């Protein structure tokens, strides 16, 4: 494949930076099927989405792995802000850019969202009919997990409301403190030290983000975390509320042993129509789908895009 760095912008005027990959088989004047990729939440393109992009480019697609607004090589101040609106917009901005390339067929553009960006991909697919096919891998619904906490099915509605009320109070107070100080408190990245009572899925995150396997200095997952006040938006803005209205094909992929599997299973039940599929990877945990090239079902992803990007 061939690689080049590209720059584009979203509707807020924020400059986004991506890695564009094209297959060596690409012919002069050819209009390619294109795929925009992002994720996981807190990651940069060099960690995960770039792996997917390179493999899919080698399989015949033009691919764009990009850094979200305020993250990595992309613009925006303060650094490491996240937002359900902005991060959904970044996918549509990538579609804007791809649609205007002379080597892309604007009627054959898909997206891949990994981890937290799987939820943003669903939101983008529900909003933007230019997205002709969507893949989510090891999806997180960031609004749900931030607003309700992990494993919310084990909690009563009253407990969830009380927790969310307390969270809103804490984060709103943090906004006041941030404004007063002129700085932004950071939420903290993935833990740097594993203890005997650390849950296994948190160990898995540590083993990716804090070791040579996946550490990157521009990733807020590996370093500071997002600005703490960013979290407030997610408590009141559910990003998958219109998932039932997606009319284009959706492929959801999750690991059998992933702690996060319920996010994909629950959302899949809400999708309408016949062109929807959930693939469960035997034995895989959440982070296996970040980097294990023999576990990520690239044959399935390729056949899905082959069938739906024409």
TrEMBL record:
Coiled-coil positions: none
Alphabetic keyword roster: Hydrolase
Parts of the chain that traverse the membrane: none
Span of domain Xaa-Pro dipeptidyl-peptidase-like: 13-283
GO molecular function terms attached to this record: hydrolase activity
Pfam families named among the record's database cross-references: Peptidase_S15
Alphabetized InterPro entries for the sequence: AB_hydrolase_fold, Polyketide_trans_af380, Xaa-Pro-like_dom
Gene3D superfamilies reported for this sequence: 1.10.10.800, alpha/beta hydrolase (3.40.50.1820)
PANTHER family found in the cross-reference section: SUPERFAMILY HYDROLASE, PUTATIVE (AFU_ORTHOLOGUE AFUA_2G16580)-RELATED
Protein name as catalogued: Alpha/beta hydrolase
Organism: Mesosutterella multiformis
């Amino acid at each position: 494949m061939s690689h080049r760095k590209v720059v584009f912008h979203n509707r807020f005027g924020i400059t986004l930076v991506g890695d564009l990959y094209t297959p060596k088989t690409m012919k002069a004047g050819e209009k390619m099927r294109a795929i925009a990729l992002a994720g996981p939440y807190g990651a940069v393109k060099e960690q995960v989405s770039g792996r997917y992009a390179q493999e899919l480019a080698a399989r015949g697609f033009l691919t764009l792995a990009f850094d979200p607004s305020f993250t990595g090589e992309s613009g925006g101040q303060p650094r490491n802000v996240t937002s359900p609106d902005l991060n959904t917009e970044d996918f549509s901005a990538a579609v804007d850019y791809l649609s205007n390339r002379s080597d892309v067929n604007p009627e054959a553009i898909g997206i891949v969202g990994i981890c937290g960006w799987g939820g943003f991909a669903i939101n983008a697919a529900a909003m933007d009919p230019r997205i002709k096919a969507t893949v989510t891998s090891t999806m997180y619904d960031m609004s749900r997990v931030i607003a309700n906490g992990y494993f919310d099915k084990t909690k009563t509605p009253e407990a969830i409301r009380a927790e969310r009320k307390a969270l809103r109070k804490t984060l709103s107070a943090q906004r006041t403190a941030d404004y007063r100080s002129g700085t932004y408190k950071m939420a903290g990245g993935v833990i740097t030290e594993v203890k005997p009572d650390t849950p296994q899925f948190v160990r898995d995150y540590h083993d990716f983000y804090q070791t040579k396997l996946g550490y990157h200095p521009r990733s807020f997952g590996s370093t500071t975390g997002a600005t703490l006040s960013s979290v407030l938006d997610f408590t009141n803005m559910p990003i998958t509320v219109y998932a039932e209205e997606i009319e284009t094909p959706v492929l959801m992929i999750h690991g059998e042993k992933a702690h996060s599997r319920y996010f994909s299973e629950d959302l899949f039940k809400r999708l309408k129509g016949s062109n929807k599929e959930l693939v469960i990877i035997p034995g895989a945990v959440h982070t296996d789908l970040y980097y294990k090239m023999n576990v990520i079902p690239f044959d399935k992803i390729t056949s899905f895009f082959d069938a739906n990007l024409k």
